[in-house]
Amino acid sequence: MGSRILLAVLWLTHWLPLPLLAALGRGLGGVLHLAARSRRRIALRNVELCFPDMPAADRAALVREHFRWLGRSILERGLLLFAAPERLKRLIHVEGDVTLAERSDRAVMWLVPHFMALDVAGVATQLFQRRWVGSIYQQQTDAVMDAAIRSGRLRFGNGEVFPRSDSAKPLIRSIKKGNAFFNLPDMDFGARDAAFVPFFGVKAATLLAPSRMARALNMVVQPVLAEMLPGGQGYRVRFLDAWTDFPTDDALADTAAMNRWIESEIRSSPAQYLWVHKRFKTRPTGEASFY
Predict the structure, then answer these.
(1) 218: how many CB neighbours lie within 10 A of its CB?
(2) pLDDT tens-place string over residues 53-79
(3) For residue 228, what are the domain limits?
């Protein structure tokens, strides 16, 4: 019942003008900052680990602002699930080479870090170019919410999702056909197929798959960054120049370079990064938990 109510709220609020919706979302974020104590503690710990020289008051202010963006991202999810494509095209401002995947004779991997507008980038890869897009999907335990999210991700007609729990073979077949891959490289999924690579100077379990897959399948790697703009200005999605030095034959060095790039982008917009995720959950053997 709870998921049905949430979806109904998202459907109703998606009709609102974005300036009003954004203001409501920031208000929701303020409430979550007070109410979601465990997530607030995780965010504060992450920021402390990544910015140890930042004064404690500044870290607390950063986390408060982060929750305001988080509230917006939750409430504005209704736009991505239900808004007409024409409205989304007006709200999403695309910069850079968005049609690279259409023109490339090699499959393209989009590397998309977990900023608050991550799902906006997913919409942009389907609305502003015609290449078929595949992405890995974390199945939801709630069947109603799972169906709604899947439907939202597939509703533009040129995307497919591959459950994370399934075999990678269907995804690999899709890439071999030349389809693009929307890849999220910066979450802690445990030690399997990962290495402890520095992230802001802290050892972080980081998947080696972006480098290994790009090398094995001869893919072009293009980083993509998504940003929520203040008020009712919409969103900016930047399709950056494809990397010419990635992948190499050294997956560990590639992964370290990828993390350094993500760090640099976080420094440009720290409040919009996903600090409520336990990025440093997996620790080397014998090392105590940070959380």
Answers:
(1) 11
(2) 999 999 999 999 999 999 999 999 999
(3) 88-272
